[in-house]
Queue: 3 jobs
Job 1
Amino acid sequence: MVLPRFITAVLVLLILPLSIQAATYNAIKEYSGATFLDDWDFYGHYDDKMNGDVNFVTAAQGVSEKLAYVDPNTSRTILKVDNTTTVPYPEKRNAVRITSKQSHEVGSLWVADIYHAPYGCSVWPAFWSFAQDAAWPAGGEIDTFEGVNLHPTAQMGLHTEGSAGCSQINPTQLSTLVNTTDCAGTNNAGCMVTNTNPNSYGAAFAQQQGGVFITEFAESGISIWFYSRKDIPSSVTQGATSIDTSTLGTPMGNWPAAGCDINKAFQPQNLVFTVTLCGDFARPENIFTQTCTGKCYDDWVIKDPSSYDNAYFDISYVKVFSTNPSATQSSATTSSGATGTQTGAQASSSNRSDKLKVTLLSVPVVVSAMLDLLML
């Protein structure tokens, strides 16, 4: 049966908006400059979450040992692994993990401008988020960036509680390497996607002066974009007061709400930067020997400290945006105060990944399609 053209056009309008959603987010919080570290908690404990061979320093240690500081020449924040101390067996090397004091709800988007990210044999860096007030993986986890050892690219993904029933279904994304689709999975492995941009990790990332990661945490789904520095869209600047996702193109990873009830599976997210050594992801022999030689701890953590000369984050800024008009607009300015606290985050465990994003079409495009149908 052939439907009347007008009815066909109406059906198009009814169906398309379910999958083609763009949104404008307004700036509510910025972490940058001399006060970057003021609104983050230092873990201040050995790595008992990812089982890494590090002691995460307190704020005071971070300052005194020059492992967490703002570079006075660039005003960018440095978070690093100790690369000067010879660590005796069976001790652990000092490193940094920080968690934002403020959590960010569904309807948020955050931008991280990073010039350098840690890499090297035994190194496992990540920029991610989780529900600090929930017992992991309840409350969900979003992994924006995660690298390991000397692997050439990073990965992205979600971790959710099994009862949430989350999976990656029909994503619209640039990545062609989907590692897992069940967001719980065996041993909470999550639904992970490889960032197929060749400059997303390691020496290539550093040579390109890093880039920008954007995470959208929305009811319609979760999306992650990555741009090397030369490819950052003109709409994405530190001074931007809003971001329209229709200007961002197709995300690298996308997890639509069709496969996951975001409000059910995720609680407000605290942002995290961490770099650990070995641990559940970098240590296993089947992973470590893909790009490195020897034993993760024996031949790297307690040997030449200069092996960690590249194990540092160099962060220009992190900026959070929201669609919630009642969000605190005054916090859109740079945070202020002293250098962080020593409170430990209640954090998660290993392996992380990415998600997919829907095609972004504006309402005028849909209306134009309907008019074309009417003219037939």
Job 2
Amino acid sequence: MFGLKGKSFLTLHDFSSEQIGELLELAAVLKAKKKMGIKGETLNGKNVALIFEKPSTRTRCAFTIACTDEGAHPEYLGKNDIQLGYKESVKDTARVLGRMFDAIEFRGFSQKTVEELAEYSGVPVYNGLTDMYHPTQILADLLTVKEHLGSLKRKKFIYIGDGRNNMANSLMIGCCKMGMHMVIIAPESLWPESGLVTTCTAYAKKSGGSLTITEDLNSVKGADVLYTDVWCSMGEEEKASERIKMLKPYQINMDLITKTENENVIFMHCLPAVKENEVTEEVFESKYSVVFDEAENRMHTIKAVMVATLS
């Protein structure tokens, strides 16, 4: 597994395209086994701490089931269950949990927190979401694209909406590393940070992909994937009315689907969706939508990460 044992999963920057491909292949194998009712024993005797500063449906359920399917014990630690970062430093909490658990998942606000947990715990740490990155979601997205379109290379992947949130950041990294033609369509004020664009452009050049940042909605022509996310991330609720006004022209609706000129285009969303904002109900419930395959794949790809780094 390309030497992944003991490695943390904090951002896809830290993984080669070969390693990402290996994780996707492992996830497909584990998914097939689960469909056949075959449970594994690769994580027998392991204990995994699940730290949640932010609430979750998919991330919590995916980690919990992935652990139990492979024989591990997941321990949920909500924001009121431990004293992370206020009565006790992240550094000290990391060293305590690292003595008791074999791995730690963190879903919260600061990327610095998940990096400190990895630095001081001595065990693999998994980023279940921060304000900057959401790498476990991207693995699920890539697996879903492979399942529906057969491959990743040279597929045109369009992300529309807030182009500088954690999903846009992480999709840029993943798609550019895997040789896809990544396009972010967003108002210029919501374009991704220039340093990240430079880094991802280099990834794309190496993999045979490309990266385009634009305001032009006509760029959806030839899209294989249309992807969007909520217009206001968790913690930005006070900006809702401003964002809705700014991003309404960037809604994914049937007119935009038609503009792709691809009857086999797929629609993706990391969920939860605010229907009639970033996507219409019509598209969400249409034949183009693969959002629930994508949601299920969170479990299989998260399982693959834990098996590769712990077993």
Job 3
Amino acid sequence: MADPNHIVTVNIVTPDGVVYDHHGNLVIVNAIDGDIGIMASHEPIIAPIKISEVRVKRTDDPHHEDAIAVNGGFLEFSNDLVSIVANSAERARDIDLRRAQYQKQKAEETIKTAEEKHNVDDLARAQVSLRKAMNRINVSSHK
């Protein structure tokens, strides 16, 4: 059983390097099968994660929660270490909201064009781009 008095280390890594490395009391991740909440002493787990927000309740301030936009990947937890490997990830404070809104608009335009032309490949790529942009926009509100 998880012990809220213990901490977990949370690392989020992308091909560009470490995006996040802190301690927390609780980590919430949206896995393919649903949300997972991880506290210290949780059973070891490996899970694929969706394009979603990762939330970390920090140990240094009980009222502070970090939000990180993660664009898929996988999570591994063992020995009180949460490791997330993702193609890309951004902390809320680092998200350029104007750029994310522009990417959302471009994805919506591409979706409309792809639907009109019945181009399933472009449609699928644009839908992923839209999910990524929406995730960044949502996470950016947690600055």
